[in-house]
Design goal:
It is a single chain. With about 170 residues, this protein is α+β, with helices and mostly antiparallel strands. It has one domain: Ubiquitin Conjugating Enzyme. It contains 4 helices and 4 strands, in the order αββββααα. The protein has a 4-stranded antiparallel sheet. Strand 1 and strand 2 form a beta hairpin. Helix 3 (about 145-150) packs across helix 4. The termini are far apart. Keywords: ATP-binding, Nucleotide-binding, Transferase, Ubl conjugation pathway.
Length: about 170
């Protein structure tokens, strides 16, 4: 079991590495310099995706048991995507396999190897999110309406995303 101090040290090391070797598509920093368990993230919409050119603010919160358990990633900006909850207490929360608790999926949608593993890093999570923006999973969506729109009215989906991108740029 990871201790809070082990997680603290790992997260500070990851932040230092990201600052030293930035990865295209996002920037990351601490919400509060005294707390490495809460990060602020700016996700940059990837080229050739409906989110191209957008800037989306997000918060990543790590449990004290990190790296044995995954963080949560919540997009705080207005957002429309099949794999991001659109309402309720989980509004804005990103739903991708890499952020699901480790072990077997009780519903059988995911293999244990697709879910959280302690070898994952902030970088691998954010690269997965950038990939999610370019290739949404409509088979097991968090936002059923966005998945349905993408499948049945792709042009309407792209227009809605373009409006959100404009909002993210204009502030």
């Amino acid at each position: 079991m990871a201790s809070s101090s082990q997680g603290h040290m790992m997260l500070m090391k990851e932040l230092k590495n990201l600052n030293k070797n930035p990865v295209e598509g996002f920037s990351a920093g601490l919400v509060d310099d005294a707390n490495p368990f809460e990060w602020e993230i700016c996700i940059i919409g990837p080229p050739d995706s409906p989110y191209e050119g957008g800037f989306f603010n997000a918060t990543m919160k790590f449990p004290p048991t990190y790296p044995n358990h995954p963080p949560t990633l919540r997009i705080n900006s207005e957002f429309w995507h099949p794999n991001v909850y659109n309402d309720g207490p989980r509004k804005g929360e990103v739903c991708i396999s890499i952020l699901h608790e480790p072990g077997e999926d009780r519903y059988g949608y995911e293999q244990a190897s697709e879910r959280w593993l302690p070898i994952h890093s902030v970088e691998s999570i954010l690269i997965s999110v950038i990939s999610m923006l370019s290739a949404p999973n409509t088979d097991s969506p968090a936002n059923i309406d966005a998945a349905k729109q993408l499948r049945e009215d792709a042009e309407g989906y792209r227009k809605r995303c373009a409006r959100i991108v404009r909002m993210s740029i204009e502030g």
